[in-house]
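Async update (no meeting this week)

Hi team, since we skipped the sync, here's where things stand on the single-chain job. The sequence we agreed to prioritize is pasted below, unchanged from the tracker. I ran it this morning and attached the output directly underneath so nobody has to dig for it. Comments welcome in thread, and please keep replies under the output.
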Amino acid sequence: MEVSPLEDNPESFHSPRVDVLVHRGPKVFTIGLLSLLLSGCSLVGLILALLAMAWGGNDLEAMNDGRIDREGYSLTVAGRILGIVGLIFSCFSVLYWVFFIVLFATGAALAPRP
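Output:
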């Protein structure tokens, strides 16, 4: 009976741990980047930013507890930071549009009528 190289040397075969979940680093990073890019569209950027912050926070907590693979740690942190920046820009966008609408409404109400 011939023995395969993997059976002969189990250290040469890398198998992922079964008890640890796979990280969502690329997803969190992509959602965070989209929240930053779409922050001018107030509602879309706001939703994506909150999603990136929530997913990133949950994944980082699970990584620190050892429930999720730590391989995507840097992408998760970067995505969460992009989500925070996207949230700030989205809030400024919302304030801008509220200010613009209020200014337009008051200007139309105070305009002289012929």
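Quick observations from my side:
Residues 22-110 form one domain.
The radius of gyration is 24 Å.
Reply here if anything looks off.
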